[in-house]
UniProtKB/TrEMBL annotation:
This is TMPPE metallophosphoesterase. Keywords: Membrane, Transmembrane, Transmembrane helix. It comes from the Eukaryota. The lineage of its organism: Eukaryota, Metazoa, Chordata, Craniata, Vertebrata. CDD domains: MPP_YkuE_C. Residues 205-380 form the Calcineurin-like phosphoesterase domain. The keyword Transmembrane applies. The chain crosses the membrane at residues 12-30, 42-64, 84-106, 112-135, 161-180. Gene3D superfamilies: 3.60.21.10. GO terms for molecular function: hydrolase activity.
Length: 438
């Protein structure tokens, strides 16, 4: 039987990841009632960072072997430039690994340069891993098809050296493109949506949709102030924020949230939780903070949006807690559609705010009379190659979907970004939704 010491280092990293994951499960099950709230919150986030880092270690070993070890037998291996290259690769990997720890130690009103650098390296790390794997697969397929799998000539050595060089070049180019794309203001996307049973007096009602701003290590007050300024220029009747506003505790990042107090939509500004609000374990304090800015959380509840032209005309605006609250057993929270739609009948139009598209799907299965659901969560994949995974994991990916004859779902690609300050294959968006009466 093989002992732990005899296992390859990749296997040891996988075992370590399993141990950390098991400790997370134990903490949730057995320590939840024994630790105070703040300690439990900090421990959970630390465990999550350690779990992700142990998984990343497998990829980092592959990166080091591909970009450094491969060239140790070349004539340039003893040169000063190669020493600098090794330092650069090590620093790159160290920054990528440190990114998740910035959530614990480096969150303030404005992002720290270290956090921006760390998350940029994390984005580049994901892209580099993808290209190393893809080019390696292509190389193996070529060898198999050419019948040269057992040969090790000069051509094979050249191709082995070419693979990491090409992967690094592609990663650098895409990282720069992604950074430039994400640094641009969100695009304003105007969408007209017919809403069944919407009163004629509410035709052309304007709803501005925000989602996935992710105030935290890499998004701060300046970015949020820019978003608020753009929203105010649109002069919406209603503004809605469909989750993942933050990645930090309310007390720590309060100064960065102040621009939200400038939102002044005449029919109100509303908020529902996303999964990241529950990762902060500080939802109650966030609710109180948002209320102080005249933003109403819809905590499995609804409000009547009354027409400015006729008090007898209205539609039901409802919001549900994010489904992650159920997974985390977050006390007093969890998606409760029946409670959220209490008093909302099919005689009036129903608009639902639900952060995750899978929650939108579940809601329609239970209440097919919902006319419009506004969601976020997917980020449109945010960066290549994560786009494909986000597309496959969500029943609605991004944009407008018609479900049945009288129901629509709109999924925002996000107003900012999560952590990694990059956008590849997606674009940040502020959505201007014009509600049309049939």
């Amino acid at each position: 039987m093989i002992s732990f010491k005899q296992l390859p280092i990749e296997a040891k990293a996988a075992v370590a990841a399993g141990v950390v994951f098991f400790s997370m499960m134990l903490s949730r099950s057995y320590l939840a009632e024994k630790l105070d709230f703040r300690t439990r919150r900090w421990l959970l986030r630390l465990q999550m960072a350690l779990f992700i880092n142990t998984l990343m270690l497998v990829g980092s070993l592959h990166v080091w072997r591909s970009t450094v070890t491969t060239f140790t037998r070349s004539p340039a291996a003893s040169s000063f430039c190669f020493m600098l290259w090794k330092i650069a690769v090590f620093t790159f990997l160290a920054l990528a690994h440190s990114s998740f720890f910035t959530l614990l130690f480096l969150v303030a009103e404005e992002p720290y340069f270290f956090s921006l650098a760390a998350y940029t390296c994390l984005g580049a790390y994901i892209i580099l891993i993808f290209f190393l794997f893809t080019l390696g697969s292509v190389e193996q397929a070529y060898k198999f098809l050419a019948g040269r799998g057992a040969k090790a000539g000069t051509g094979n050595k050249n191709r082995t050296a070419l693979k990491p060089v090409l992967a690094v070049l592609l990663t650098v180019v895409l990282t720069v493109v992604g950074l430039l794309n994400a640094s641009q203001p969100p695009t304003v996307n105007s969408v007209e949506i017919p809403v069944h049973k919407l009163p004629s007096t509410m035709n052309n009602l304007k709803v501005v949709l925000l989602s996935d701003i992710h105030l935290g290590p890499t998004v701060g007050k300046t970015k949020l102030a820019m978003i608020v300024k753009m929203v105010k220029a649109l002069k919406p009747d209603i503004t809605v924020i469909v989750g993942d506003l933050t990645d930090a505790e309310a007390k720590i990042i309060r100064p960065a949230v102040e621009p939200l107090g400038e939102l002044d939509s005449p029919l109100g500004t509303y908020f529902v939780t996303g999964n990241h609000e529950y990762y902060t374990s500080d939802v109650s304090n966030w609710f109180e903070l948002l209320k102080s800015f005249n933003i109403q959380p819809l905590h499995n509840e609804n409000v009547k949006i009354v027409s400015p032209k006729s008090t007898s005309d209205w539609f039901c605006l409802a919001g549900v807690d994010d489904i992650e609250a159920d997974v985390l057993h977050y006390s007093g929270h969890g998606m409760d559609l029946k409670k959220a739609l209490r008093g909302c009948s099919s005689e009036h139009a129903i608009v639902l705010l639900a952060h995750q598209p899978i929650a939108a799907k579940w809601a329609l299965q239970e209440r097919p009379d919902i006319n419009l659901i506004l969601s976020g969560h997917t980020h449109g994949g945010q960066i290549f190659p994560l786009n494909a995974g986000a597309y496959l994991l969500n029943p609605f990916f991004v944009g407008l979907y018609q479900v049945g004859q009288n129901t629509f779902v709109y999924v925002s690609p996000g107003t900012m970004y999560y952590g990694i300050p990059m956008r590849l294959g997606s674009r940040a968006e502020i959505t201007e939704i014009i509600l049309r009466s049939p």
